[in-house]
Amino acid sequence: MAQLEQVEGIILSVRDYRESDRLVKIFTANAGKRMFFVAGTRKPRSRIAPAILSFTKATYIADIKKTGLCFLRDAKEIHYYQTIQQNIFLNAYATYILGLADAALEDGVVDGKLYHRIERVLERMDDGEDPEILVNIFEMQLLPYFGVAPAMMGCAVCNDTTGHFDFSMRYQGILCEKHWDKDPYRMHASERAVYLLRLFSAVDIDKIGQISVKKETKQEIRKILDLIYTEMVGIHLKSKSFIDKMENTNFFKEI
């Protein structure tokens, strides 16, 4: 039986349903991901429509069911990630983050830690921090949800934690300099790029400050993460394809 509850949540996706309604997926802090039926939100005078815009966080009053559709009744304490909403570049990165979170967790599974991580990444992005770095951190820390755990703290062969390292797809993790010969196709990444990947895999999003990263290093990190998500995770979201196209289009860089 449905129960009326107040749940804090972040909008994941919105789609039209029938003539005047919408289906809204919300990542809630204490009820997991849920799909909500929202009646009449496509009508001009809908009171709840502003609360289900993309990149919005609010406290939602809803009938929560254990299975099937839930029903959204009202909302309060509405917060918009306005910078993200107004900037197509940030919009693309935030959409990718939300899409990854949706893919990583089954509906109805409560995960307050992941909810907080999404919330903090969106907040920091909205405040003007580098979206590429925030996405990289999120990607690295989401890997365990897909059952992927590359060896990042120590060499995949000998567990050595000091010295120079490179990333190896063959060994699914970093290799120390003594074992580089074991994989002639290792990434040949810079020391800085590997250091940052190791940092991103373990850093607390609440404690790390802003990080300045050169364009060339970002490209190295992006190449490694793309390989991990393609070869080890096995997903490539449409939102990621859009980012790839966007980054190769000067028009978007100028927005």
Which terms would index this structure?
single chain, about 260 residues, alpha+beta, OB fold (Dihydrolipoamide Acetyltransferase, E2P), de novo design (two linked rop proteins), 2 domains, two-stranded antiparallel sheet, about 35% helix, disordered C terminus
Can you describe this structure?
- Belongs to the RecO family.
- Keywords: DNA damage, DNA recombination, DNA repair.
- InterPro entries: ARFGAP/RecO, DNA_rep/recomb_RecO_N, NA-bd_OB-fold, RecO, RecO_C.
- Involved in DNA repair and RecF pathway recombination.
- It holds the Pfam family RecO_N.
- By secondary structure, this protein is of the alpha+beta class.
- The protein has two domains: 3-80, OB fold (Dihydrolipoamide Acetyltransferase, E2P); 87-253, de novo design (two linked rop proteins), CATH 1.20.1440.
- The protein is built from eight helices and seven strands; from the N terminus they run βββββααααββαααα.
- The chain has helices spanning 82-86, 88-104, 112-126, 131-142, 191-202, 215-233, 238-247, 250-253; strands at 3-17, 21-28, 32-38, 56-64, 70-80, 165-168, 173-176.
- Strands 1-2-3-5-4 form a five-stranded mixed barrel.
- The longest helix has 19 residues, at 215-233.
- 32% of the residues are buried.
Q: How would you summarize the topology of this molecule?
A:
Blueprint: E1 3-17, E2 21-28, E3 32-38, E4 56-64, E5 70-80, H1 82-86, H2 88-104, H3 112-126, H4 131-142, E6 165-168, E7 173-176, H5 191-202, H6 215-233, H7 238-247, H8 250-253
